[in-house]
Design brief:
Order of helices and strands: HHHHHHHHHH
Number of strands: 0
Radius of gyration: 21 Å
Structural class: mainly alpha
Strand content: under 5%
Length: about 200
Amino acid sequence: MSAEAKSPPVAKPRRTQAERSQETRNKVCEATLQALVEVGYEQISTTLIAQKAQVSRGALTHQFPTRNDMLVAAFERQVSEWQNGYPFGLDPEKEQLSVDELIDALWDNIFANGRYVAAIELMLAARQDNELGHALRDILVSWIRKRDRITVRLVGGDVDDAEADLKVQLHLSVLRGIAMHQSFDSDPLTAQKLIDLWKRIARQA
């Protein structure tokens, strides 16, 4: 038998407390976003999320002492994924998108995803004048500012051009509306037909 065959398997290093904590946080945030899609904001509880995340309630509350802490962390995670993903992770100095490409990129990577409905649930909660509303609104305002500036630049626009900014807002508003329509439309092809129609309209404009 070779020396290699006699060698004992190498033991995996034990995870640190920080790694275990981060894993719990990740599971809880993912479960929260999924629950928002399935049952909506009002039905979210730490007990429900602990079950969906398959973590103990004690482990959950150690990381997120309150329901609000959990919701804010989930929203931060979603916004971070948008910010670092396509198309917002692009460098506008090196890569530009046509209007068609921008619409497709926004739709495919943000609005078509069922988790966008989860984000909408939290965006609506951000209107409330309470602790959760203020925390969510702070995240949302910061994200919107970055999102709009990079979107304008990705299509070769000037961030100081008010009309260019309005055009970005129009794209986002239309896609947001299609996403909401998709959430209750029984025909899975309708959303793509609307996207194609909007691209034709945007080209003419």
